[in-house]
Amino acid sequence: MNKQKKDLFLIDLEDLICGVDFDVVTDTPYDEDSVVHFFEFENHEMDSELAVILGLGVVRNLHTEDDYYIYNASNDQADNFGFMNEFTRISVYYQITHPHYDDKKLEEFVIGTERGRKFLEKLQTVESDMPFLRLKEIFDRKRGNVVFFNRN
């Protein structure tokens, strides 16, 4: 069972205006008709490079200093798997930036199957092994910390 992500929130964009409430800080597309929410990570140092590789973008809150959010910069809405694509991007980003978190389903899918690895590659906007290798390193490290108990 996964631990809850208590520091990840959705921000509805219904009443927010680009240029007034926030600015895009990454060189990623922002389509106001298709982006309906941002993801906020509390107590988090943004990894813009990882976000861009995964097809995500970063915006800066213009009302609060050092307040950044992530959005799905890829046009997944036209795809039947749009939600799954966005969910996987955010899951990979979260796991890499929160290595203490343990997303077993992500590990089983992306690390455990060739199909999962190819899916991750398809989601990326930049050809890079970095997300896969960082995930593998995180999950391998967790496996290395197994403690066996004596059953006597």
Describe the model.
This protein has 152 residues and is α+β, with helices and mostly antiparallel strands. The protein has five helices and five strands; from the N terminus they run βββαββαααα. It has helices at residues 48-53, 82-97, 104-111, 114-123, 130-143, and strands at residues 8-12, 22-24, 37-41, 56-61, 68-72. The strands form two sheets. It has a three-stranded antiparallel β-sheet with strand order 2-4-5. β4 (56-61) and β5 form a beta hairpin. α3 crosses α4. The longest helix is centred in the middle third of the chain and has 16 residues, at 82-97. The chain is globular.
Instruction: Sketch the topology as an H/E string, one letter per element.
Output: EEEHEEHHHH
Which segments are poorly predicted (pLDDT under 50) over 5 or more consecutive residues? none
Helix % is 25-40%
Distance between the termini: 28 Å
Order the strands across the largest sheet as they lie in space: 2-4-5
Shape: globular
Give Rg in angstroms.
17 Å
Q: How many beta-strand runs?
A: 5
Mean pLDDT: 89
Q: Which class of secondary structure composition applies to the elements?
A: alpha+beta
The share of residues in extended strands comes to 15-25%
Biggest sheet details: 3 strands, antiparallel
Number of helices: 5
